[in-house]
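User: Hey, my collaborator sent me this sequence without any context and asked if I could get a structure. I don't really work with proteins. Can you help?
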Amino acid sequence: MSDFIVRQPCVEREGAFAGVLCSAEATGLYGVDRPGVAWDWMKQTGQAPCGVDWVRPLVADAWMRCVEDHALPTGVDFPPRQRQGDGFAPDVDATSRAANGAVASHLSAMIYELGALLDDADVTLLLTDAAGRVIHLLDSGRRIWAGGMQMARIGADWREASLGANGVGTAALLREPVAFAGKEHFNAALHRCATAGCPISGPDGGIVAIIGVICDRPDAARLLLGFLKVARRLLEASLFERMSCDGFLLRLRCDDEAGGEGGPLSAGRLFVAKNGRVCGADRDALDILGAGDAAAILGKDAATTIGVDLTALAAASDNADLVMLVAREGRAVAAEVHRTAKRRSDPAVSSAASPAATGALGHPANAFDGEWSDSVLDSALRKATGLQERNISILITGESGVGKDHLVRRLHASGPRKDRPLVAINCAAIPRELIESELFGYEGGSFTGARAKGKAGKFVEADKGILFLDEIGDMALDLQATLLRVLDSSEVTPIGSSKPIRVDVRVVAATNRSLQEMVQKGAFRRDLYYRLNGVQLRLPSLCERPDRLRLLAHLFRLEQEALGVTEEMSFEDDVWRIFDRHPWPGNIREARNVLRSSIAVARGKLIAIDDLPADFLQELSADCPGAAEACRSVARDAQCAEAGDETSFDLADWEARAVRFALASSNGNIAKAARNLGITRATLYHKMARFGLRSDKRIVSKR
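Assistant: No problem. I've predicted the 3D structure and written it out in structure-token form, which is a compact way to encode the shape of the chain:
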């Protein structure tokens, strides 16, 4: 289509613009980017188009709100508007509470499961709170659009008032599924994308979260919305099953075909508490009962609302009988009845919980009381155990430090081969010339430097057990061919021998690299990739997990035990906020190092920002106020020390902190700690005795 300038939409003539000479293509309704034309007109006039059918009514209304209600700039690529007082404001505290509550913690595991369906798609999957602030995500967003990292991060604000009309923010505002394609977005930064959002309802009918998808295919908006609607039903059903209360769960079945809009997925769920009142209903139950909205039945007596009392429900549950419910419009509704008990470790799942009810952030560790359960790792473990029993190859992927080796150890301990050996080998840590002999072994005297009696390789050592090949992506191409042959034949031929050895080994491989991309580049054998990739288990990075603060609190307790700290320690609120916003590029491995060093250098029971490692603070995003405040705090301490302030630390305090940090960061390795400090080991031992420290691969402070 040729270039033209649009000045004013013409109401009298559909598809045309007054005062403008447009091409033949532009005046037709087909073969033209109608949202693009309307957006260009809005860019030039500063007004949202109305009275002409060039955009969907949903889009036109959203644009109107962006101009008139939100006062956003038209026709430009603008950064997200920050909320007033943004940073570590109370609304961030509320998000932190939501991100670590029962709802988001459970949804995170479900999102992890859904993310496996999108591994081969170039999309970002978001989970936001009810207002549109990101509390969980899968994928980095860097491939989606320029500046994607700013919006594809924990805490990013997708509200319509902040970013303009988009699938996630508009869905949060309208409380209904929404999708935007290309130039239907108000913000030019999103024109290369399709965005879709879908609200997730809690058992009480309130919105607990928004699930959203971003894709770099603008024409995929409807497809994304369809996926989210199916995902919403699965998430809501799972949330309902997690409802923590004593009473009865009713699974509704409608005898006619009119009940529910979801077909086979529309089996409604209703919950009746032990006090006889209806306290939960999903959207399908409301449709089947013809209740209209949740307010029509929630909180009301079950006997008068659905025609069944507690006595009938108890009898039906004990006898595994169906009960008949009273529904509007003459529908016959049958229900299965199941008794439920309150969960000990989960708080009540309620979207109506207010900040006052949940309490202020305070010390976040208070919210982490109770039994810790890593739902993400447990989910991967359940899958892996079943695959191991069926002799299906397992490939574990994830960034460095996410716990791939920990998953393998737990898999071995809980699997059918727990009484057999687990042998691990890091393919990246062994020189290329030695890895073949390490894997397959060699005969005595087969090469210069070989042992006289030879050596059994890792395959033979792992016979009847599990062989863990870590960093498999770093294996040389020629060795990949040999490995493939061993996996196919289950026979190993040691170097210098002509007699193959039969082995029974379950191989689990892991990598932090994209083997699929390596295959396309010719750096990894395609046949070996498919041989190892029976099923792929991805462990999310620490920053992708909404339960990261609960996980950090759990690791904090473990590190205190490992360091022999008997006094109860905790972090200041600002430290928890930094932990919540930190990108954690080293993942769990980095987290343990930070926690360990913070415990070692802390001056008291309460760990402050200036007790955190300096390089950790430098990793924070430039827009994180906590990082700047931490630097200012350290700078103030240094200035006070130089000025001789009586309330500041003296030289011995700084020296003791440096020694503790060096010991903690080196895991108690005296030689490494001495090198880091630039002193001899003898001098370090002297300083350790002076400050009351000792090291037997542990660091214990007497202070």
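In plain terms: The longest strand covers residues 207-215. You can pass these tokens on to your collaborator as they are.
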